[in-house]
Amino acid sequence: MKFKKLIDEIGALTTPTTSQANLIISKMREKIKAYVVDNNIKSLVVGVSGGLDSACVAALCQEKYTGVPLIGLSIPMSSTNAHKEQAKWVGDNFCTVFEEFTGWDEKFFESNEAEAYDVSSTMHTKVFNVLEQTNVLAEKAGFKTESFPASILDGNLKARLRMITLYDLARKTNGLVLSTDNLSEFQMGFWTICGDVGDYAPLQNIGKGFELPAIARQLDIRNDIIVQAPSDGLMITDDDTDEAQLGANYQEVDTIMFCYKNDNPYFKRRLFETVGTDTVAAQKVAKVIGRYESGPVVYKRNGTIKLQRDVIGLQ
Q1: What is the tens place of the pLDDT at every residue in 89-111?
Q2: Predicted TM-score of the model (pTM)
Q3: Tell me: the pLDDT tens digits for 218-245?
Q4: For residues 249 and 209, what is the distance between their CA atoms, to the nearest angstrom?
Q5: Cα(139)–Cα(230) distance, integer angstroms
Q6: How many whole angstroms from its chain centre is CA 19?
Q7: How crowded is residue 120: how many other Cβ atoms within 10 Å of its Cβ?
């Protein structure tokens, strides 16, 4: 109960009011428009998943605000029917043009070698099977490939196939691929390198737990998109939720990171005093902070995405 009270306290401190949310939206749109104009960009390309992040990015970057077409692409690969419907709603309401791209789910065959392949295999699974051939090299180097879960390999592959598709479309339209990552994911290193990170990140200084839902409401995002359990749609866990992978939901993540990183020592002291006798809360705090401080995540933040943040002024 004490941890829940702390979450409510931090939520009250960090959730923007209606007027604050509208001011944030206005400033974001000004910055996006200036970037488009200054860099002579002819289109913006966004992957639309049906989730909150891509819905907000699409609403922010509509053609009427940027002056260039917003090209939306839904690339399902194991997405639920509900997410497909939500993605279509976003595309129809905010994108200049929108399509559901199913090429990676199409059956794989070659006209002269149809017998050589399992015709039930898709383009995506064929690429997965090809990549498994690298297991031999990894094992020669002394690594046990079975220790790396196939679900993570497949999740990374899906993210990268999606990004290959978006970048190809951006090349053909002299465009820019929009990132849909937020501050919470940035801090947790919760993205795929060369996967779900594009060129320009409108939301990368916006927390998903408290800030983004308030902004989404002012963007007229559908309520079911705002309140649904966040998912990357990659089926890395059985229930396919971000919380299952992170060990905490985004309100918990944002509360922990707000207290842990705050310059005011009161908040860090309050965090550890609050969870001191709550085993479940203590486990969440340890997992979130451990992930934030881990070597691979620090590398991802400092070596990859920070360059992008520098370019667009999100310090």
Answers
A1: 999 999 999 999 988 887 765 54
A2: 0.88
A3: 999 999 999 998 776 665 556 667 788 8
A4: 8
A5: 36
A6: 26
A7: 8
